[in-house]
Amino acid sequence: MIIPHDSVVLVADGAKMLFFRNEGDAEYLQLVVEDADQQRDDYDRDIKSDQAGQKPAGGGFGGSTAGEPDYHEQAEERFAKDAADVLNRRALAGGFERLVVVAPPKTLGELRKHYHKETERRLAGEIAKDLVNQPVDRIEAALVAA
Known about the structure:
Elements lengths: L7 E5 L3 E7 L8 E8 L5 H4 L6 E3 L6 E3 L5 H22 L6 E5 L1 H9 L3 H6 E6 L7 H10 L1
Parallel strand pairs: 1-6, 6-7
Antiparallel strand pairs: 1-2, 2-3, 4-5
């Protein structure tokens, strides 16, 4: 993938986002961290305060677990929305001309739901991979290979 000089690269998952700027050129990437944010990434069982309720089965005893929300999943969706909000604010303020987003497929889908038209206009590419915990040189290599 060709990433011009001064492009912004967001590498994110459901709990961490890293903003890079390409200080190199389109041929030789040099990603420099501009900003980072992370939330706690607790398991669902650690977030809930009690056990799931029970629905009675048709026969009177036994039953199935009532539909419980997955709080971990909700927290990841909220974090992706927050990441999209940051992108939208930066795009509307003219903070970047070109944007590349790298995120796992689920997070990428959630981000897309919340892009402003201006963010979409500046979006140069997306990579559906989880690279948020990789060193910068591996992120650069993945971008070049894409």
